[in-house]
Design brief:
Mean pLDDT: 93
Helix content: over 70%
Order of helices and strands: HHHHHHHHHHHHHHHH
Largest sheet: none
Shape: elongated
Radius of gyration: 23 Å
Structural class: mainly alpha
Strand content: under 5%
Low-confidence stretches: none
Length: 257
C-alpha cells in the first residue's frame, strides 16, 4: 500500500528520529496481514531503535507476534522480560498471563500451572476477555496433560462460566466432554455437547462433537440417537479421520434398531 511504502522510506532513514515509529507501524501492518514473522522482526527493530516508551510497546508487539507464529519458547521469554520491565501492575499481569499461555503451548505444563496458581485472582478477572479465556484454557489444558483430570474439569468449568471467548468455548466444551467420556460419564458428556451442536460451532469442533455424541449414545443404548448424530457424518465430513469409525458405530446401531 502507499502507506506501507512511505513507512518503509522513513524506516530506512536511520538518521530520522521517526524511523523507530515507522518500524513499529510496519510491524502492526504485518501483524494485521498475518505475517507474524515479519511483524516480529519489525517490532524487534523498533524496540532496539526507539526510546523507553516505544521499546515497551514494540516489545509487546514482538512477543504477541512470536506467540501467534508458534515460537512459544521465545514468546514466553519475551513476555517474562516485559513483566519484569513493566512499571504498570496491570501491564505486568497481562505479560505474566501471556507467558503462561506460551509456556503451556511449549509443553511446560508444570510451570504453567504453578504460575497460574500464583496469579492474583483479581488480576486475572481484570485481564481483557480474550486473554483471560486463553490463560484459563491453557491452565486447564496443562492440568489435563499432567494427568489431573478432576482439576482440569474444574478449570474448564471455571472458563465456561466466565463469559468465555466464543472462539475458545467450543474447544473447552469438547475437552471437558472428553474428560467425562474417559470417566464413563456418557450422559454428562452428552449434556455438554448437544447444546453446542444445536447452537452451531466451527466445522472442526462440530465434527468432533458429533462423533463424541454418537459414541456416547451407543454407550447409553440410544441407537436412534447414534443414527441421528452419525448417519450423515461421512457425507458432512468426508475428509475426516473419524469418518470410517463413525460409519462402523452407525452400522452397529442400525443392526440393533
Amino acid at each position: 500500500t502507499d502507506a506501507r511504502a512511505l513507512l518503509l522510506q522513513v524506516a530506512e532513514a536511520a538518521e530520522s528520529r521517526f524511523a523507530a515509529y515507522a518500524m513499529n507501524h510496519l510491524g502492526a501492518i504485518a501483524q494485521r496481514a498475518g505475517d507474524n514473522a515479519a511483524a516480529a522482526q519489525w517490532f524487534e527493530q523498533a524496540a532496539e531503535a526507539g526510546g523507553e516508551a516505544l521499546r515497551l510497546e514494540a516489545s509487546v508487539g514482538r512477543a504477541r507476534a512470536l506467540l501467534a507464529e508458534g515460537r512459544n519458547d521465545e514468546a514466553g521469554a519475551a513476555f517474562d522480560e516485559i513483566a519484569t520491565a513493566a512499571d504498570d501492575a496491570a501491564q505486568a499481569t497481562t505479560a505474566r498471563a501471556s507467558a503462561i499461555v506460551a509456556l503451556s503451548r511449549a509443553g511446560g505444563h508444570e510451570e504453567a500451572v504453578r504460575r497460574f496458581d500464583e496469579l492474583d485472582r483479581r488480576g486475572v478477572a481484570r485481564l481483557e476477555p480474550k486473554l483471560r479465556s486463553s490463560v484459563r484454557y491453557e491452565h486447564a489444558w496443562s492440568l489435563r496433560q499432567l494427568g489431573r483430570a478432576g482439576d482440569a474439569a474444574d478449570a474448564y468449568r471455571a472458563l465456561l462460566a466466565d463469559a468465555p471467548d466464543p472462539a475458545l468455548a467450543p474447544y473447552a466444551t469438547l475437552d471437558l466432554a472428553s474428560i467425562h467420556r474417559e470417566a464413563g460419564q456418557w450422559q454428562e458428556a452428552t449434556n455438554l455437547l448437544a447444546p453446542m451442536v444445536d447452537a452451531g460451532a466451527p466445522a472442526d469442533a462440530l465434527e468432533r462433537a458429533r462423533y463424541q455424541l454418537g459414541a456416547c449414545a451407543l454407550q447409553l443404548g440410544d441407537h436412534e440417537a447414534v443414527v441421528r448424530w452419525l448417519g450423515g457424518f461421512h457425507r458432512d465430513f468426508e475428509q475426516s479421520d473419524l469418518a470410517a469409525s463413525a460409519d462402523l458405530l452407525c452400522a452397529e446401531a442400525l443392526m440393533k434398531l
